[in-house]
Design brief:
The strands form five sheets. The chain has a four-stranded mixed β-sheet with strand order 1-6-5-2, with helices on one face. A four-stranded parallel β-sheet has the order 7-18-16-17. A four-stranded parallel β-sheet has the order 9-8-10-11, sandwiched between helices. α3 packs parallel to α6 (241-250), α3 (166-177) runs parallel beside α7 (271-282) and α6 (241-250) runs parallel beside α8. By secondary structure, it is of the alpha/beta class. It has twelve helices and 18 strands. It folds into two domains: 31-126, Sandwich (Immunoglobulin-like), CATH 2.60.40.10; 130-427, no CATH class. The chain starts with 20 loop residues before the first helix and ends in a 19-residue tail after the last strand.
């Protein structure tokens, strides 16, 4: 499978969706001074069976200003226009693939003055994405299968513990930046499936991420025997998960030693950093793991950001994941944006909405409740320039459904067997709404 071309983008677009609610639900009413006439079109691309993002097509108003919006023509089947005297938006789930062209006319009356505008719009509804599943018998074979599905060969391979998540989370965005797979191992030995995948890839370098308690010296010895003199093995470890993250990022050969942009995520839980890796890979940025409960950066963390030449930081997660005090500390030195939300699914969907344009080729779907099967998927998605979404174990979560409806992927790849993500996910069954 060919690797993605250069993924370099600007981070400016990421600042537009720091709160997912702004993307999923119409905003509250604003003053008449901010009115926008003619109306904006709804999203131009949609997917059968998935909700469109209900953004306001005209800036909401409040009395005594009034709004009237009319539709000429027809929306795609399954979509409808909601319009009252204060706001208007299109919502619903398309029911069939089609292209619909229509016009929206807005009339805003304020202080006896009427402003009118008309906009011609088109919505193209694509078929629901084709679903495939990559499922290994365990997390280690899972990582090998993800690698095999993504890489024909690789000069560099990253190897991290699959028994705990932090080191693999640190490695995902770095591996993607190096167009490299991320394989998982036990602390004691590399499984046969992973050894076979390493031999197939025939790398020149294997980067072991984590200290000897996470990946034992016996594993390094096993790699030397399996790969012989064809591969150089380098360990990047540290006293804890945070030092491993810093040292890996700063490594001149196998890290991302310079970047204007840095993603900040807690190292004490996995979902936020997992979903951040593909978004970070789009702009060749690292994901730095921190103690999210801290009130300020540590001296080594400040040194890492300084060494990188960072100018902007993007916090992934709400204030329970990365504290408001830590955000304030970052904002003293860097342009700082937070991607928050009511839960991990909203955080992930909001970041993907900001980072990826509609019409992506593939969306990787991982469990938001358990980490093992998803770890290697972050690197694979990042290499290909595709997003990774997280969901509930038995159905597509509400925020994730909106994410699929906005990104409109041609394909969805489920990461893990039915024990991680149940059979209803094979048909992308949406979770019931209350």
């Amino acid at each position: 499978m060919p690797l993605a071309p250069s993924r370099r983008l600007t981070l400016g677009g990421l600042a537009t969706a720091a709160v997912l609610g702004a993307a999923l639900l119409p905003a509250v009413a604003t003053s008449a001074s901010a009115l926008e006439v003619p109306p904006a079109c709804p999203q131009a691309l949609a997917a059968v069976g998935f909700p469109v993002t209900a953004t306001d097509i005209v800036t909401p108003v409040s009395p005594p200003t009034t709004l009237a919006v009319t539709l000429t023509g027809a929306l795609p089947d399954g979509l409808s226009l909601y319009a009252d005297a204060e706001r208007a938006y299109v919502s619903g789930k398309p029911t069939r693939a089609q292209t619909a062209t229509f016009s929206l006319t807005a009339k805003v009356t304020s202080g006896g003055t009427m402003s009118t505008g008309t906009t011609e719009c088109t919505i193209t509804v694509k078929p629901a994405p084709m679903v495939t599943r990559i499922a290994g018998k365990d997390r280690f074979e899972q990582s090998a299968l993800v690698s095999k599905n993504t890489f024909a060969t690789a000069d560099t391979v990253y190897l991290a513990s699959g028994e705990k998540f932090p080191d693999a989370l640190s490695a995902a965005s770095v591996a993607a930046d190096h167009s490299a797979p991320l394989l998982l191992t036990t602390a004691a030995r590399v499984t046969d499936e992973v050894v076979a995948e390493l031999k197939r890839l025939a790398p020149k370098d294997v980067v072991v991420v984590g200290g000897p308690l996470a990946v034992s010296p016996a594993v390094v010895d096993q790699l030397k025997i399996a790969l012989g003199t064809t591969a150089t093995i380098t360990r990047i470890g540290g006293a804890d998960r945070f030092e491993v993250s810093r040292k890996l990022i700063g490594d001149r050969t196998f890290g991302i030693p310079a970047s204007d942009d840095v993603f900040i995520a807690t190292g004490t839980n996995f979902p936020d950093a997992l979903g951040a890796s593909p978004a970070a890979a789009l702009i060749d940025a690292p994901v730095l793991l921190v103690n999210g409960g801290a009130s300020a950066l540590t001296a080594p963390e400040k040194a890492t950001l300084t060494s990188l030449g960072a100018k902007t930081t993007s916090i992934v997660g709400g204030p329970l994941a990365v504290s408001a005090a830590l955000e304030a500390d970052l904002a003293k030195s860097y342009t700082t944006t937070r991607f928050g939300g009511g839960d991990r699914f909203e955080v992930n969907a909001g970041l993907n909405a900001a980072a990826f344009k509609p019409g992506v080729d593939t969306l990787y779907l991982a469990s938001g409740s358990n980490f093992p099967d998803a770890l290697s998927g972050g690197a694979a998605a990042g290499v290909q320039g595709n997003p990774l979404a997280i969901t509930a174990p038995t159905c597509v979560s509400g925020a994730t459904a909106f994410s699929i409806g906005r990104l409109v992927p041609s394909k969805v790849v489920i990461l893990g067997g039915t024990a991680s993500l149940g059979a209803p996910l094979d048909t992308l069954t949406l979770c019931p709404t209350e």
